[in-house]
Structure formats: C-alpha cells, structure tokens
From TrEMBL:
The UniProt record lists the keyword Protein transport: yes
Gene3D superfamilies named among the record's database cross-references: Metal Binding Protein, Guanine Nucleotide Exchange Factor, Chain A
GO MF terms, alphabetically ordered: guanyl-nucleotide exchange factor activity; zinc ion binding
UniProt organism field: Zygotorulaspora mrakii
Name used for this protein in its record: Uncharacterized protein
PANTHER family to which the protein is assigned, alphabetical: GUANINE NUCLEOTIDE EXCHANGE FACTOR MSS4
C-alpha cells in the first residue's frame, strides 16, 4: 500500500496509508477555492479534477494536525452545490467544510479538511463527517 507523507524533505512525516478504494475525484475548484497547498505548478488550472483520499475516522491517520476553520466563503451553498461524488456505492454531497488538516510535525499545509457529507439517495437520512486529504498536497509514494 502506498503511503502519503509530508512533502517537506526535512519532515517527511508519515500521514496515512492510501487505500485506492477511498480515493475520490473532486472538481479542481475545491483545491483552488479552499486554498489548499499545491505541490506541482498550478495543477488546478490544467486539470478538471484532483484526487482526494476520503478518511472516515481521524484515527486512521498515522499523524495529522487539525488547524483553523475553513473560511465561510468557501463553504457557502453556491460553491458546494456542484460538489458531489460517488463513494461506497452512494452519492455524497459536501454540505459544509469544517477545519483544515495540516502536518502534525511541521504544521505545513493546509493539505485537506474535515467536512460533513450527506447521502443524496437518502436525503436527510444519512449524514457523516469525514476527512478529505488532498493528494496534490502531499508526497504520495
Ligand atoms: Zn511535515
């Protein structure tokens, strides 16, 4: 299994094992609008989508830091309406972003965020909080 690590050579902290079944594609606007760290040069301007790892439980991380709240501007309904994805046989919509994720050792980031999701198939019936780690923002080997 491949592992996501902090991209900074001096740090290289292990963040999480990447299970490919939990990798989802989100519109590049998510990476850009949430102002997540990008390693390659402006990938969001040339790519339509970016890979994120969906993590159900914060304890699944080897190491992770939780930082400040994601600004309201990004989490308003206008931006979020388009952000839907399939995972585990259901379609999920991002309802609200919560807090940024950062490297727990060197505080570099943000490399992702926590967010609340709702299940489109059973609207109102199923909500959960997950963590979305941007694979553009970490070293992934
Ligand atoms: Zn680090």
């Amino acid at each position: 299994m491949r592992k996501a690590r902090c991209s900074f050579e001096d740090c290289n902290s292990a963040i999480i094992d990447v299970n490919v079944d939990d990798v989802i594609l989100l519109p590049s606007s998510v990476l850009r609008d949430a102002k997540l760290m990008q390693l390659s040069k402006k990938p969001s301007e040339t790519q339509q989508t970016n890979e994120f790892l969906l993590v159900n439980d914060v304890w699944d991380f080897d190491n992770i830091g939780v930082s400040k709240e994601v600004p309201e501007g990004f989490t308003n309904e206008e931006n979020m309406r388009e952000v839907q994805f399939e995972h585990g046989g259901s379609f999920w919509r991002m309802d609200k972003c919560l807090k940024y994720l950062i490297c727990s050792d060197c505080d570099k980031g943000p490399i992702g965020f926590g967010c609340s999701l709702s299940n489109q198939a059973q609207r109102g019936a199923q909500n959960k909080v997950v963590y979305l780690l941007s694979l553009e923002s970490v070293k992934y080997v």
